Amino acid sequence: MALLQVDHMTHFFSGLRAVHDFNLAIEPGEIRGLIGPNGAGKTTIFNLITGIYTPTEGKISLNGESLIGLYPHKIASRGIGRTFQDLRLWRHMTVLEHVKMARYSQLTYGLWGAFFDTALRRKEEVESEHRAMELLSLLGVDHLADQLVVNLPYGAQRRVEMARALAIEPKILFLDEPTVGMTPEELVQIMAIIRNIHQKFDLAIFMIEHRLKFVMELCEQIQCLVFGEVIADGNPDDIQNNPQVIEAYLGKDAVEA
Amino acid sequence: MSFTFLMQNLVNALQWGSFYALIALGYSMVYSILMLFNFAHGDIFMVGAYIGLGVATLLLALVGTGAGAMLPGWVVLVFTILISMFLTAFVGLIVERVGYRPLREAPRASAAITGLMIGIILETSNIILMGGQRVKFPQLIESVTYNIGGVFVTNMKIMIVLVSLGLMLALHLFVTRSKWGMAMRAMAFDYVVVPLVGVPLNTIAAMTFAIGSALAAAAGILFGLAYPVLDPFMGVSLGWKAFVAAILGGRGSIMGACLAGFMLGFIEIMTVPAIQIVNRLFNLNLGSNLRDLIAYSIVLLILIFRPHGLFGEPYSAKLRL
Predict the structure, then answer these.
(1) pLDDT tens-digit map of B131-148
(2) Which chain A positions have a beta carbon within 8 Å of B318's beta carbon?
(3) B273 min Cα distance to partner chain A (Å)
């Protein structure tokens, strides 16, 4: 059985069809790509699976358990971590706080622990901080732990967001255009980081990406979405040579030429 | 116009500032996480005062009063404050659940009038339940006046300021040290992501209403001790002024709300001696009923020069969806 399974998912925004009959099956440890022109509905698919919207029709399940109708925080705790296309960090909080926040559900101390240094609180805080620092060093931003994110360069902010998504200990990580605004140098680094976390945590990854070369290199299987519909689904070679994909990306002339 | 006279006013300013600050915190906290003003908050303060009255009356009936009392007055007071805060927190929870949660995705204006309507409902319910009479708040502790170098300070005023500062400190600890407080701060910057890292949004929102309401209840009891007459509309004027303090402090800033609360108390109280000085200097006869007119003109001036308040961040409004 697939880790993440989506069957016949369709979604309407007040009469406008945003996603049509979307199907997906991601196995544990797989890296999957989702490409498509702007406005195709890629981020909507992320929002549907992570529970920000509830799909009009269709089934979504993680490890065989349905996610439909669950609160987003429940879905996240069941093992879906996520980053955003337009970085969504808490500007005036520190890097370390971002990662610790994502360990919310692992902290069990009660109201007493909120005010006083109870043994449980101390133990959990120490452990939480330790795990957070491990993740930050894995992403190469541990030296920035005490900085406010608002003061960090763009590339570092991306890494913090990824560390935060990993801190919930996901089984599958959703990356929404992880390379937006990156220099060629940063691209190489982020690719190495993705490969590294993929191996280290035996993590499945589902990524939306515009840079075809980047997706082709990382993903075993890729879907291409146009106007909410999957027009192609296959390995990088299939996708690259699919006339419909070429048309969607480069226009009709490119196919005929 | 002596130094002792100024000090005397300063003590009064601290007391009024405590009321404003405690109430302003509720406005500010809710605003910071949900981007809406809970206009019912002044009336929650009123409800808190009445709950305090009920709890105090009940406790006094249980332990007895005067020389035969089983417990000293200050113990009754501490329990009155704690129990009332706890009960009023539930009022906040209900207001959030019934009035705000269903409207979270609604236009902001709808959420704003929700508060106004809940306020009217609370005021009217009070009139129906209590008969619309002004009621007297029991005097829980014997009033003692200290003469400190010519400045007269009652034990009540000292207690009010200390309890307020204590509650503010507790709130500060909670917000900076606990996971819930951290979630509140995160929600203030971007609440969309908060559930996506496994934090239950509704729990945090409900908790914020509960804490704000509990603080308002404490303010209500302290107010009842200082000015021992309660009426159903006591939360209106005080609520609006505390709302001014919340904005003046910088929307969503906890520290700002506290400081602006005290500042507002200071401006209001100090306006009276200022009027007297002006009268004496220019041989005028301005009445102290000009107090609020002058005080709030000053606040308006401050806002013109600091439109985002004392601790507000100019971009805060853009951080939302």
Answers:
(1) 888 899 998 888 899 988
(2) none
(3) 41
Task: Give per-residue pLDDT as tens, A145-177.
Answer: 999 999 999 889 999 999 999 999 999 999 999
Inter-chain contact B198–A84, Cβ cutoff 8 Å?
no
Of B320, B293, B310, nearest to B251 by C-alpha is: B310
- Name the minimum distance, in Å, from the CA of B174 to any CA of chain A: 6
Q: Tell me, what's the pLDDT at A180?
A: 87
Q: How far is B180 from chain A (nearest CA, A)?
A: 8
Enumerate residues 6+ apart whose C-beta is below 8 A from B221.
Answer: B48, B49, B52, B56, B80, B81, B84
- Short-list A48, A79, A81, CA closest to A178: A81
Percent over 70 (pLDDT), chain B: 96
User: Among all chains, which residue has been given the structure tokens 């809970």?
Assistant: B38
Taking the alpha carbons of B38, B42, B45, B47 in that order, is the dihedral positive or negative?
Answer: negative
Across the interface, do A71 and B200 touch by the CB < 8 Å criterion?
A: yes
Please report the ipTM that was assigned to this predicted complex: 0.87
Dump pLDDT digits (tens) for B272-299: 888 988 999 999 888 888 889 999 999 9
CA distance A199 to A31: 11
Taking CB atoms and an 8 Å limit, are A115 and B170 in contact across chains? Answer: yes
Strand bridging mode A221-226 / A229-234: antiparallel
Q: How many CB atoms lie within 10 A of CB B108?
A: 10
Nearest by CB to residue B201, choosing from A73, A82, A165, is A73
CA dist A198 and B258 (Å) reads 47
Which residues from chain B sit within 8 angstroms of residue A72, using beta carbons? 195-196, 201
Scanning B184-213 for CB atoms below 8 A from A yields 185-186, 188-190, 192-202
- Closest-approach residue (CA) in chain A for B193: A88
Please tell me the predicted confidence (pLDDT) of residue B310: 84
Q: Which fold has domain A1-79+170-257?
A: Rossmann fold (3.40.50)
* CATH class for the region spanning B3-319: mainly alpha
Within 8 A by CB and 6+ apart from B116, the residues are: B39, B40
Question: How high is the pLDDT of residue B321?
Answer: 31
- For chain A, the structural domain boundaries read 1-79+170-257, 90-167
Q: What is the CB neighbour count within 10 angstroms for residue B121?
A: 15
Q: Compare all CA atoms of chain B with the CA of A93 and give the residue at the minimum distance.
A: B186
